[in-house]
Amino acid sequence: MPCCSGLNVLTSGSMIPQGSGSSNELNICNVKVWKASDGIKGPGTCFPSPCGSYLPVEFVAFTGELEQKIVNLYWKTLTETNNNYYEVEKSSDGINFEKIGTVKSKASTGNSMNPLEYTFIDKDLKHPIYYYRLKQVDLNGDFERTKAISVKIYAAKFSIFPNPNNGTFSIDVPSVNLHEELSVKIYNAMGQLVHESTEYVKNHNITGSRVDVTPAQVLPKGIYLSTISFKGETHQLKLVVQ
């Protein structure tokens, strides 16, 4: 029987073994809940036991990932039974959660035996780490919550934002220490140095640390190579000015 199925033996019925072969067994969601050697099951017997002990939604994934200035939340369900919607809850301390959005179930009439995928985007990022969890609400109002996941809000690598830009941009830095020094050099397509400056890390409370770069002279539209020297290492990033 498929996941989230249930079986009750009524007063007029019973489960009686017919031999001992592999076909003489009851499986729910690939789990064997009764076999011939268990003997006769009479009225009042239910599977799974205790009666009704199944999950309305069977999750197989719930993840969150920082991309540029947003957090992408993703979850996948294997089956859904009487599911109405999901509430996305968020916390900056892992204790106090608040609702930040609602996602309607993709299951027809709230029931599905096929995998379903969901996404949610969070753009309000002001703290160094966030915790997310899902509140799954049934059609009858019952609900369950997932375990919380955490997403660190700082740059995982050097990146230019926005890119393309108008010649003024920021560099996200994989560091949370303020006032650290880095050198920025920008070269045009001919390999000519068109900008050079020393910048200092500052915290904008969003994706951790960054530096803002404003060349003294306006950069013409084109593709440039930005060379960043930080803590003894050199990083090269493509810069597009439109």
Structural description of this entry:
With 242 residues, the protein is mainly β. It folds into three domains: 41 residues, no CATH class; 96 residues, Sandwich (Immunoglobulin-like), CATH 2.60.40.10; 83 residues, Immunoglobulin-like, CATH 2.60.40.3080. The protein starts with 6 loop residues before the first strand and ends with a strand. The model has no long low-confidence stretch (mean pLDDT 84).
Task: Identify the notable features of this structure and list them briefly.
mainly beta; Immunoglobulin-like; 242 residues; 3 domains
- Mean pLDDT score: 84
Radius of gyration: 28 Å
Compute the separation of the termini in Å: 59 Å
Structural class: mainly beta
Instruction: Kindly state the number of beta strands.
Output: 20
Taken from the alpha-carbon principal axes, the silhouette is elongated
* Whole-number total of structural domains: 3
CATH class membership of the largest domain:
Mainly Beta
Beta-strand percent range:
over 45%
- What are the secondary-structure elements, in order, as H or E? EEEEEEEEEEEEEEEEEEEE
Largest sheet: 5 strands, antiparallel
- As residue ranges, the low-confidence spans are none
CATH fourth-tier homologous superfamily of the largest domain: Immunoglobulins
What is the CATH topology descriptor of the largest domain? Answer: Immunoglobulin-like
- CATH 2nd-level architecture of the largest domain: Sandwich
Q: How many helices in DSSP terms?
A: 0
Helix content: under 10%
